Amino acid sequence: MTEQSDHHKGTPPEGTGMDLAGELMLGLFVSFFSLFVIAESLRMPQKGHLGIMMSPGFVPLFTGIVLFLLSLVINLKAIRGGGLQYVGSLLRSIRNEEEIRRFLWILGFMTLYIVGLIGYVPFVVATLIYHALIFFYLKIGGPVKIVIYTLIATALVAVFLPRVFNMPVP
């Protein structure tokens, strides 16, 4: 006996377009991230007669290539399913939902901290900027409280913990 669905044959069930658009967005993010991993792994030092195969970047290179290929599969399936036409609707729904926007802002601050600040400015300064952005965005208090909490958190993360646990910092 075959099950009958609530939608007509050939018509996608409700929500499928948004799901496909989400898969496409995720697939594109993974594609770009895997290209970043591939590029960074190729920049790692290569020693010995086997070149990249003996470098510390071999496993990240292989992983990046596999991730890229898998993300291409996701992207192609999403595009073939019509996900591209729903990307605008997905972005509008993201813009309208406070929790998703908050998550994306915090993710953006983390990305800025990890990719844009660490290694380019002193670790204490990078950590101070990160905490200030997070605390300001989350509105944890007035300006004075934000400054105090930022200084305490930065001192804890960038000075106290590394010294107590003898951790190297970037």
Cα shape: flat
Q: Helical element count?
A: 6
Number of domains: 2
Spans of at least 5 consecutive residues whose pLDDT stays below 50 are 1-8, 10-14
pLDDT averaged residue by residue: 86
Distance between the termini: 63 Å
> What does the main sheet amount to?
none
Radius of gyration using CA atoms only: 22 Å
Strand content: under 5%
Question: What structural class do the secondary elements suggest?
Answer: mainly alpha
The amount of helix comes to over 70%
Number of strands: 0
Strand and helix order: HHHHHH
Descriptive notes:
This protein has 170 residues and is mainly alpha-helical. It has two domains: 91 residues; 73 residues, no CATH class. Helix content is 70%, strand content 0%. The protein contains six helices and no strands. Helix 1 runs antiparallel to helix 2 and helix 5 runs antiparallel to helix 6.
Output the keywords.
170 residues; flat; 0% strand; single chain; disordered N terminus; 70% helix; mainly alpha
Write the layout of secondary structure elements.
Layout (H helix, E strand, L loop, with lengths): L15 H28 L14 H23 L6 H10 L1 H20 L5 H16 L4 H22 L6
Helix pairs in contact: 1-2, 4-5, 5-6
Structure, briefly:
It is built from six helices and no strands. The protein is mainly α and 170 residues long.
